[in-house]
Amino acid sequence: PPVFSPGGKKLALVCQADFSTNQAPILVIDWAAGKVTRTLIAAGTPTSVAFSPDGRSLVTGSADTTATVWD
């Protein structure tokens, strides 16, 4: 599911994976502006996303049991 950063300024969500490339985009959206500020491409199939407590980093977890920290 989509998650808000601490403070509610950013929203992160995992989009549907492209199974031909085995990649899925993760969008980070400036909630007030309604604009995508980052598009991250994760290898594998991300199933979860979370912000760090300070909201500066994002962590994704994938179906293959890997985790990625995005700064």
The helix content is under 10%
Let me know the number of strands.
7
Strand content: over 45%
Radius of gyration: 12 Å
> What is the chains' assembly state?
single chain
User: Which structural category fits the helices and strands?
Assistant: mainly beta
Mean pLDDT score, rounded? 91
Give the CA-based shape: globular
Please give the count of helices.
Answer: 0
Report, as a whole number of angstroms, the end-to-end distance.
20 Å
Instruction: Note the main sheet.
Output: 4 strands, antiparallel
User: Which residue ranges are poorly predicted, with pLDDT under 50 across at least 5 consecutive positions?
Assistant: none
Along the chain, the helix and strand elements come as EEEEEEE
**Strands side by side in the biggest sheet:** 1-2-3-4
Features:
single chain, 71 residues, mainly beta, four-stranded antiparallel sheet, three-stranded antiparallel sheet, 7 strands, 0% helix
Question: How would you portray this structure in words?
Answer:
With 71 residues, the chain is an all-beta fold. Helix content is 0%, strand content 55%. The protein starts with a strand and ends with a strand.
In short:
The protein has 71 residues and is an all-beta fold. It has strands at 3-4, 10-14, 23-30, 35-43, 46-51, 58-62, 67-70.
Annotate the secondary structure layout.
Elements: E1 3-4, E2 10-14, E3 23-30, E4 35-43, E5 46-51, E6 58-62, E7 67-70
Antiparallel strand pairs: 1-2, 2-3, 3-4, 5-6, 6-7
